[in-house]
Amino acid sequence: MAVVFDTEKVPDITLFSSGTPNGIKIPITLEELGLPYKTVKIDMAKNTQKEPWFLEINPNGRIPALTDTFSDGEQIRLFESGSIMQYLVEQYDTKHLISYPKGSRLSYEVNNWLFFMNAGVGPMQGQANHFHRYAPEKIQYGVDRYQNETRRLYGVLEKQLGGSTSGYLVGSKCTIADIAHWGWVHAAFWAGIDIDEFPHLKAWEARMLERPAVNKGRNIPDKDRMPELAANKELAEKSAREASKWVMKGQEADAKK
């Protein structure tokens, strides 16, 4: 890994994650910044994210999470993907490789799209995934509700990218706003969304994938299976059935608490 960060602070980063649209945001960010880090794979099929040691890092029992040594010499814990991404660029992106100077107009615009992702695309597409792939019974209202809302949000991204001269969401370059969205758009088919309906967004997804850091980070800590699953309907259905078992098991365990 080429070290490109320029800061007096020495990273002591451990990433706790798995290969989900949220999970891959952080390794992609770390790779874009050229930061050294250790990875601990969280096996959600085994409910590792609910074990006591992990809840000390993220009390919500979700991935991704990250630890680092803070400026006071003590360990700091970070959870929620947007919070982690903001921390990484504030602490380490002194050259503004994937961010803009703090307090600048463009930095606030990046925040707009980061929160748009975390409050909109992620939750809505996540629910589309659930009702389309994992729910033990088909509830058409749920499928339609969340697929339609995901399409609406994709339409907002489509319009933004259609007016972009750089091909990215904000300003002249790829930022954490783009990185935050990429894994979800890359997995559009899993939610039952046809990316061909959004030509600017489809082109952006391919453009992002050409970036070495994106191509590497999407396979950490697990191999990116989305292209394989998209090309094989039978395999996708089998994978969804297997995942549904641990999704339902996890929900049952949460309901008992």
**Looking at the structure, what is the overall shape?**
globular
Strand arrangement, largest sheet?
Answer: 2-1-3-4
Give start-end ranges of low-pLDDT stretches. none
Strand percent estimate: 5-15%
- Secondary-structure element sequence? EHEHEEHHHHHHHH
Largest sheet: number of strands, sense, barrel closure: 4 strands, mixed
Average pLDDT metric: 95
Describe the structure.
The protein is of the alpha+beta class and 257 residues long. It contains ten helices and four strands. Strand 3 and strand 4 form a beta hairpin. Helix 1 runs parallel beside helix 3, helix 4 packs parallel to helix 6 and helix 5 crosses helix 7. The N and C termini lie far apart (43 Å). The model has no long low-confidence stretch (mean pLDDT 95).
Set out the fold topology:
Elements: E1 13-17, H1 25-33, E2 37-41, H2 52-55, E3 65-69, E4 75-79, H3 81-92, H4 105-134, H5 140-162, H6 176-186, H7 199-209, H8 212-217, H9 226-230, H10 233-255
Parallel strand pairs: 1-2
Antiparallel strand pairs: 1-3, 3-4
Any key phrases for this structure?
4 strands; single chain; globular; 10 helices; 257 residues; four-stranded mixed beta sheet; alpha+beta; 52% helix
Concise synopsis of the structure shown:
By secondary structure, this protein is of the alpha+beta class.
